[in-house]
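hiii so um. not sure if this is the right channel but i have a protein structure encoded as C-alpha cells and i wanna go backwards to a sequence. like what aa goes where. can anyone help
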C-alpha cells in the first residue's frame, strides 16, 4: 500500500474483516489498479486514503477515474 501510516489501526480492521482468499485477491487487485488512477496520482498522492480508511470504507469497491491511454 502506498501510504505507510496508521498500520496498527489498519491491521485491527483487517482482522475484523477476516478476509478470505478471494476478497484478499480482490482488494490487492483494486489497490494495484487504484495506483494508476487520477485520484491517487493527483498532487503526488495527496488523496490516497489511509489504509484504515481504505479498509473500513470498503474503498476497493470505489469507481475511480483513469487517464486515457495516449495510444487510443
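sure thing!! here u go:
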Amino acid at each position: 500500500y502506498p501510504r505507510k501510516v496508521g498500520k496498527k489501526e489498519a491491521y485491527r480492521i483487517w482482522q475484523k474483516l477476516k478476509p478470505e482468499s478471494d476478497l484478499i485477491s480482490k482488494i490487492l487487485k483494486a489497490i494495484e489498479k487504484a495506483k494508476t488512477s487520477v485520484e491517487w496520482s493527483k498532487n503526488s498522492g495527496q488523496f490516497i486514503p489511509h489504509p484504515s480508511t481504505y479498509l473500513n470504507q470498503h474503498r476497493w469497491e470505489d469507481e475511480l477515474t483513469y487517464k486515457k491511454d495516449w495510444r487510443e
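oh and Residues 28 and 69 are 23 Å apart (CA to CA).
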